[in-house]
Amino acid sequence: MDRQLVALAGGFVLAGAAAIYWSVQKAPAPASMTAPDTADVQAGAPLAQVKRPASLSAQAQIGERAYNAKCAACHGENAAGQNGVAPPLVHQIYRPGHHADAAFLLAARNGVRSHHWRFGDMPPVEGVSQAEVKNIVAFIRELQRENGIL
Asked: Is 87 in contact with 45 (CB distance < 8 Å)?
């Protein structure tokens, strides 16, 4: 019986120590979901400085070609956005935890009402398949990871 009480008391002490430890740990600062002020950025200029990875996966290479054909006219080279036209996709707003891969498919298929940026609504993208969007997302995610967007 004494061993059981000692074990139980030890469990409480460990649980209490763990609770104290986790309560004093600083949570990471949440990423801002507010689009930056672009008033001082020249019209059409990129809205993000995008660093490219040293190499892209085969899927991302295919996605880059599809992105350049279907998305770059608005979202800019390397998904850096264009002021007054479309937002950068290499931005914390589009990280996987906030905009899952399926959000890109839905955006391409149905268009999107403007909600983070003030560039107006995005129309559906004509002639892009689900497979192409998956490859485009692979390209965007690799750019995001290279730029610290997780």
From this structure: no
Query: What would the pLDDT profile of 44-98 be if each residue is shown by its tens digit?
Result: 899 999 999 999 999 999 999 999 999 999 999 999 999 999 999 999 999 999 9
Correct CATH for 58-146 of 1.10.760.10, 3.90.550.10, 1.20.140.10, 3.40.50.300: 1.10.760.10
Overall pTM > 0.70: yes
Instruction: Specify the DSSP class assigned to residue 9.
Output: H
Secondary structure in 3-state letters for 60-97: HHHHHHHHHHHCHHHHCHHHCCECCCECCCCCHHHCCC
